[in-house]
Specification:
Blueprint: E1 7-11, H1 16-27, E2 31-36, H2 39-49, E3 54-57, H3 63-77, E4 80-85, H4 100-121, E5 125-134, H5 147-166, E6 173-179, H6 197-206, H7 217-228, E7 239-242
Parallel strand pairs: 1-2, 1-4, 2-3, 4-5, 5-6, 6-7
Length: 252
């Protein structure tokens, strides 16, 4: 119960890594608020997380939705201790085929959403809190078809460095969790034809020297719980990669 009575807000908490983090935080004693765009998966997540969970439908690209999320969480659950900026998305496209709509959607979800999630949360946070930004090893490797997505995650990494400096006077720790290939529903939302998804999954898994396998969302959740807890009291400005070694081994 290392997060007992802590208040945590998680964007994209209705599925995948976000939901796994929310489940782990609840298991560790936290009071949790989640946000997601899909009403059906949000309702299912709220039921799974149990009584006391605050679930709000919204889009991180919409600043009024973020303002409402943080204000409601603070009012109903108490001042915020932990913020996990997890919501995002990717579209796999060759560089020359990326159109403005796809570019704007990825920048909006992955960078704008992360930026303003933290900005709207910080005034409602307790001193000594924790901010966790979700990045990706796509920002570290030149993966074909991920030019827009990788750029947004590189921006998240840079934002984390600045926030490390700016939020330090309040004792708010800022850290980045950078997953490798993780087995979540996002694989079905990459913009690939259905018949290409198995080959894409096999290709991503082949990058991982640790067992040539996808990671599990629950494996990311335990790392996030560590970063959110007092066990990580001297971990500030860290970039923690959890990818089975994929970003470190050439030709893995």
């Amino acid at each position: 119960m290392k997060l007992a009575n802590k208040v945590a807000v998680i964007t994209g908490g209705n599925s995948g890594i976000g939901l796994a983090i929310a489940k782990e935080f609840v298991r560790q004693g936290a009071k949790v608020a989640i946000q997601g765009r899909n009403a059906d998966t949000l309702a299912a997540a709220e039921k799974e997380l149990g009584e006391g969970t605050l679930a709000m439908q919204g889009d991180v690209r919409n600043l009024s939705d973020l303002e409402s999320l943080m204000a409601t969480a603070a009012a109903q659950l108490g001042p915020i201790d932990i913020v996990v900026a997890n919501a995002g998305g990717a579209t796999v496209q060759p560089f020359l085929e990326v159109d403005e709509a796809s570019f704007d959607a990825q920048v909006g979800s992955n960078y704008k959403g992360t930026f303003f999630t933290v900005q709207k949360a910080v005034p409602r946070m307790n001193d000594g809190g924790a901010v966790i930004l979700l990045s990706s090893i796509a920002a570290d490797r030149g993966l074909s078809g991920m030019s827009a997505y990788a750029g947004t995650k590189g921006a998240v990494n840079s934002l984390a460095r600045v926030l490390t400096a700016e939020l330090a006077p309040r004792g708010i720790r800022v850290n980045v969790l950078s997953p490798g290939p993780i087995d979540t529903p996002i694989m079905g939302r990459l913009g690939l034809p259905d018949e290409h998804i198995p080959a894409a999954k096999e290709g991503f898994a082949s990058l991982v020297p640790m067992g040539k396998r996808f990671g599990e969302a629950a494996e990311m959740a335990t790392i996030a719980a560590f970063l959110a807890s007092d066990d990580a009291s001297y971990v500030h400005g860290a970039y923690l990669t959890a990818d089975g070694g994929a970003s470190q081994v050439m030709g893995a």
